[in-house]
Design goal:
The chain has one domain (4-84). It is built from five helices and no strands. It has helices at residues 4-20, 25-30, 36-47, 52-61, 76-84. The longest helix has 17 residues, at 4-20. The relative contact order is 0.21.
């Protein structure tokens, strides 16, 4: 089981990556496009990523809405699906 600190870190990364890509996760949940279970799975998937530091640096470097997520992002498919809606 992941520590609370780890889960919070990755929850923030998931939210920041979605925002960088132009996806508002809260709005998607309110619209019924994203369930709490889906969000939990996204955070857990993020905790297994081997590129956390790369991700953090990529996010820090973003100054505008990104046209795509990094290739290593475990939630890229989810974010693309949410952006299409």
């Amino acid at each position: 089981m992941q520590s609370q600190t780890t889960l919070k870190r990755h929850a923030a990364l998931v939210d920041n990556m979605a925002q960088a890509y132009g996806v508002d996760l809260e709005e998607q949940m309110l619209r019924g496009k994203l369930s709490m279970s889906d969000l939990e799975d996204a955070v857990l998937g993020c905790t297994a990523c081997k590129s956390v530091e790369k991700c953090e640096h990529w996010l820090e470097a973003q100054t505008a809405t990104a046209t795509d997520t990094p290739a290593y992002c475990r939630n890229a498919t989810l974010f693309r699906a949410l952006k299409q809606d």
